[in-house]
């Protein structure tokens, strides 16, 4: 066997790995730049300043991850009325905050990445919209004496 065969074989194996990386590495790399990230159980979720219970948090995360990203908005939302749902996501590297404003057609999301950087976008999710409405009515009932 020629002596050049082994280095060429190793170089081709490395090149093929770089050209088609494993799916879990690709998903991890792409998720860093996602506008509408998938939430994990590490997310801390607040509704009107009160933290959600574990069951409600798991249900919210399931519905959040099931919502479809519609499009990014490049200017501020002009019709943000109502009570927002605040979501804080803490991970080992970053902290992101979300403000959700429910409308009958879609959900306006303001993703606060840092103090100076915010991303505005819209998502569509009927189950998420219904869950937001139920959370808001619950919080209003608790707030009223």
Description:
The chain has 145 residues and is of the alpha+beta class. The protein has 4 helices and 7 strands, in the order ααββαβββββα. It has helices at 5-19, 23-32, 54-66, 126-143, and strands at residues 44-47, 50-51, 68-73, 85-90, 95-102, 107-112, 118-124. It is elongated, with a radius of gyration of 21 Å. The relative contact order is 0.15.
Number of helices: 4
- Determine the N-to-C terminus distance: 86 Å
Q: Would you tell me the structural class of the helices and strands? A: alpha+beta
Series of H and E elements: HHEEHEEEEEH
Q: How does the major sheet shape up? A: 7 strands, antiparallel
What are the SSEs and their pairings?
Elements: H1 5-19, H2 23-32, E1 44-47, E2 50-51, H3 54-66, E3 68-73, E4 85-90, E5 95-102, E6 107-112, E7 118-124, H4 126-143
Antiparallel strand pairs: 1-2, 1-4, 3-7, 4-5, 5-6, 6-7
């Amino acid at each position: 066997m020629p002596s050049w065969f082994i280095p060429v074989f190793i170089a081709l194996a490395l090149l093929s790995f770089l050209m088609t990386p494993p799916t879990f590495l690709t998903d991890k790399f792409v998720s860093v730049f996602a506008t509408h990230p998938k939430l994990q159980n590490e997310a801390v979720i607040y509704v009107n300043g009160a933290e959600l219970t574990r069951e409600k948090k798991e249900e919210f995360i399931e519905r959040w991850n099931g919502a479809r990203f519609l499009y990014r908005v490049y200017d501020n939302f002009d019709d943000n009325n109502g009570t927002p749902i605040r979501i804080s996501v803490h991970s080992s590297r970053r902290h992101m905050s979300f403000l959700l404003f429910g409308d009958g057609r879609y959900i306006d999301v303001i993703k606060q990445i840092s103090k100076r950087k915010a991303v505005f976008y819209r998502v569509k999710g009927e189950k998420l919209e219904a869950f937001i409405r139920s959370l808001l009515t619950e919080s209003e009932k608790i707030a009223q004496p």
